[in-house]
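Onboarding guide, step 5: your first structure request.
Type a short instruction followed by the sequence, for example:

Predict the 3D structure of this protein.
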Amino acid sequence: MHKALERQLIRCYGSLQNVPEEQRVFLEQVNKTYTESDQEYSLMERALDISSKELTEANVLLREEKKEIEKKVKDRTKELSQEKSKLNRIAQNMNTGAILFNKNGQVTFINNKAREIIKFDDMDDSLVLEKLFNKFEGFPVEEYLERCMAGETLKIPEAEVSHLIFELLFQSLLISDGEDPTSFGHLIWIRDITEEKLLDRSKSELVAIASHQLRTPLTVTKGNVEMLLDESFGKLNDEQREVLAQTAESNENLISLVNQMLDITKIEKGNLYLNLKAVSLDVILEKIVDDLSVYAKTHNVLLKFDKPKVMPKVLADNDRLYQVFQNLIENAIQYCHNDKDGVCPVNISVGLNPDKINIKISDLGIGIPKQEQEKIFGMFYRASNAVNLISSRTGLGLYIVKSIVELFGGTIRFESEENNGTTFYIELPVVK
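The system replies with structure tokens like these:
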């Protein structure tokens, strides 16, 4: 019998023998309950011992893991701090000025070069903007900063102040969270471009002087050769005429090069003279097609101009507009090379809308290699297949064409596929 029950019965009856017989069945059930309760208690106590041990072990593991995480966080924080310090030193010692604003327009960083440029030695960064605006007074710095904070990227290519020339770039700093990027700050880069601009100007002046000096003797040579070819000084035999014709062609190429160099000098200096007026574009295109018709036939090219019934006028310089389309159409003729028995078409068409005139010049010529297309409007650049076909061109024509079109307030672009032709699209504003 369970010891606890036995003690209770002895307390009640004096001894176990005095317990009535009729109660023994009940006492057996009670004894069983006591025994089972002891067993359950023993099991529970054992389970608690195991749980306590497991919890102790888990707690030890957690403390070790916590120490490891804390060590990693500490090491990473140190690395980030070192990286931040390194980036800060780099930013502070850059040769380009940098001023960083938060999205509220408050200055959060200004490097040493920017301080030097705007002559800012105060520790109160709230005065940076005032110094910046005063430094570049007369330039739209304040307006561009406001537009930059609205999300635009803008540039002042040349800001000349106190005999120094600066380039200012206004840029939003964006972060993408998988959706639309959002701005977390704005940056103004200020770069001193005095040396390179003065060098460019010196080169331009040298080119201009050399071109002017060359123009006179070349013009004299042209006149003398023309008189010789006209037999003003006597009859020529076939060999003499051929030599003089070659001389005339070479001289003409040199005159064209000199004129192009002078145009580039004027474009770079911003003083290309334009006599802007309302110009009838259809008249110019018809004249160019007529002037180049013989040249086109010698290259086995068919020139076609689809003239619209109504053609609004454009605001442009008549001679410069002629130069633009003569260059583009002449290029289309030169590089429109089909087989000898076929005729290569060059089509000129015009599209109209209320504000713009769209001119399309297309050919089925050699095209422009895809990897070279982004450079085609660059100065002195020619596509490799064009150089292989005609080696004597300068690579200045398209640069001048694009510059003039943009001076008219227009745009120019192209689509091309090697061996399948090229189409140029020119858009010009109409006269209101």
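Each response can be followed by summary notes, for example: The radius of gyration is 44 Å.
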